[in-house]
């Protein structure tokens, strides 16, 4: 029998994908650019980040209307930009992503850089075009820029590249991941809190959940690179190992990595318990944690 | 004797550069990234785009405070990102910019992509961090994203690349330039109008001025590539010609290009005259037009 989370995901994934397709098709720009942007956005994936926003809105009884889809969708646009640039020859140099050719393999390197630039920029436009009040718009755009920019994700990327030359300590690796993956996941949850209009106590606890979930997410990503096949992940595997990247399994072995994963999951569960005590429904957020038991691809 | 415009420029250029240095130094991120971002931002240039914002604020008696510098500075951050990505090997493949090595030549291609991404993203953060009211913040960020993204500058870039394979008509070339260069210049003037709180009539006329100025700016850029030396421009010259890029001189000869330039300048002057009739001071904006007579480098 399907869980509440699976029902929710099924229902909203279709709507979200339609929203993204419509948003991109309506942009008044060069067709080649739009094709390249849509190619990567439509490559699928679980849409974890936007789903977190939608789930928190649902749990807080915020009506999931077009504006909420726009905020959720804008995060997927921005996340997709990061994947396109990450795959570039000068970065990770990947040929496959989600089982299809990476953007630069399909459209060439110049268009891939610009498709990434376009997605990043239009993520802000997408929020700006909503009918949300200006205060919420300004807060969302500022928080998104902080999470994705040089104080967040972009610094995580740089730390990742710089880290290839040296062994990081656990604290350094945690900071790297907090910026590279954690910042956008925390933004997703903060955005959900903002749209849902939760109390300050709830907002803090949702943020704690996000931090723990984001960490678990990245550790699991590192583990999957070691234990999966290319077919399961839809992209090259064992690359981290081969390139001696700084990962949890590399730093503390596979058992150590699983231990860290379980610790992060425990923290996330504690936050959910606290949220329950604060009067918030948490079935859907709890559903996100099942992901670590059954995930087959990104 | 120095003109009012030259006095103004001298006074505010120093402040603006200090603001940019302070803003970047305070970011809590990886040092390598911050160095790469600052390297290109501090390479100089006339700062035409932020200066337009400052000039309109000055003419409308808007106090030029820290918030105005932030809005002006954020546009320079974003403009600098576009130059860094534009210079990449997969794009224009330039080694020199403003007389110094391009970002990727200095820091490597991966860091250059990320420095560009960081500058683009933090431009929005920079506006979001001001004390301006939320309505103005939201309007500025939305307009900036529209001007810089797939409905503006990024589409211009793609059209430029696609255009290398074919001859464009004058109308197509104008659309290309309107997006590639014009959109950000129009944004600068619109932002100035918003900060200055001008009337609707004045706002429309300032926008008209921006469109004409932006067009003149791009035509002059095309002309300079033909008539200048590398030393004068601080970057490689005659590349457009060599690569049969779609430019005004390529499409209609040098005389034809000068004719189009003068036509655009005439339109800009007409707008300034109308603005004067609408009760606005225009000495500073007029000073921007002198630029076309004495400009030596970007």
From TrEMBL, chains A, B:
<dbReference type="InterPro" id="IPR033749">
    <property type="entry name" value="Polyprenyl_synt_CS"/>
</dbReference>
<keyword id="KW-0414">Isoprene biosynthesis</keyword>
<keyword id="KW-0808">Transferase</keyword>
<dbReference type="GO" id="GO:0005737">
    <property type="term" value="C:cytoplasm"/>
</dbReference>
<keyword id="KW-0460">Magnesium</keyword>
<dbReference type="GO" id="GO:0046872">
    <property type="term" value="F:metal ion binding"/>
</dbReference>
<dbReference type="GO" id="GO:0016114">
    <property type="term" value="P:terpenoid biosynthetic process"/>
</dbReference>
<keyword id="KW-0479">Metal-binding</keyword>
<dbReference type="InterPro" id="IPR008949">
    <property type="entry name" value="Isoprenoid_synthase_dom_sf"/>
</dbReference>
<comment type="similarity">
    <text>Belongs to the FPP/GGPP synthase family.</text>
</comment>
<dbReference type="GO" id="GO:0004337">
    <property type="term" value="F:(2E,6E)-farnesyl diphosphate synthase activity"/>
</dbReference>
<dbReference type="InterPro" id="IPR000092">
    <property type="entry name" value="Polyprenyl_synt"/>
</dbReference>
<protein>
    <recommendedName>
        <fullName>Farnesyl diphosphate synthase</fullName>
        <ecNumber>2.5.1.10</ecNumber>
    </recommendedName>
</protein>
<dbReference type="InterPro" id="IPR053378">
    <property type="entry name" value="Prenyl_diphosphate_synthase"/>
</dbReference>
<dbReference type="Pfam" id="PF00348">
    <property type="entry name" value="polyprenyl_synt"/>
</dbReference>
């Amino acid at each position: 029998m399907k869980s509440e989370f699976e029902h929710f995901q099924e229902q909203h994934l279709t709507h979200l994908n339609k929203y993204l397709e419509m948003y991109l098709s309506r942009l008044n720009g060069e067709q080649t650019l739009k094709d390249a942007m849509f190619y990567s956005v439509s490559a699928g994936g679980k849409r974890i980040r936007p789903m977190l926003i939608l789930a928190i809105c649902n749990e807080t009884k915020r009506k999931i209307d077009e504006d909420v889809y726009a905020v959720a969708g804008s995060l997927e646009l921005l996340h997709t930009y990061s994947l396109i640039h990450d795959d570039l020859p000068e970065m990770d140099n990947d040929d496959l992503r989600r089982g299809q050719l990476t953007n630069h393999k399909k459209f060439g390197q110049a268009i891939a850089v610009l498709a990434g630039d376009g997605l990043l920029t239009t993520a802000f436009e997408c929020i700006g075009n909503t009918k949300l009040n200006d205060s919420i718009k300004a807060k969302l755009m500022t928080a998104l820029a902080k999470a994705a920019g040089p104080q967040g994700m972009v610094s995580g990327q740089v730390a990742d590249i710089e880290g290839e030359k040296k062994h990081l300590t656990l604290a350094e690796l945690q900071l790297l991941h907090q910026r590279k993956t954690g910042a956008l996941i925390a933004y997703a949850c903060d955005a959900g809190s903002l749209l849902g209009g939760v109390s300050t106590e709830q907002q803090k606890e949702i943020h704690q959940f996000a931090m723990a979930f984001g960490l678990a997410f990245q550790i699991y990503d590192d583990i999957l690179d070691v234990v999966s096949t290319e077919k399961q992940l839809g992209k090259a595997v064992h690359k981290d190992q081969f390139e001696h990247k700084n990962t949890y399994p590399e730093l503390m072995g596979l058992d150590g990595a699983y231990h860290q994963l379980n610790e992060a999951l425990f923290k996330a569960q504690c936050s959910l318990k606290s949220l329950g005590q604060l009067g918030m429904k948490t079935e859907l957020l709890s559903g996100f944690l099942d992901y670590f038991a059954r995930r087959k691809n990104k």
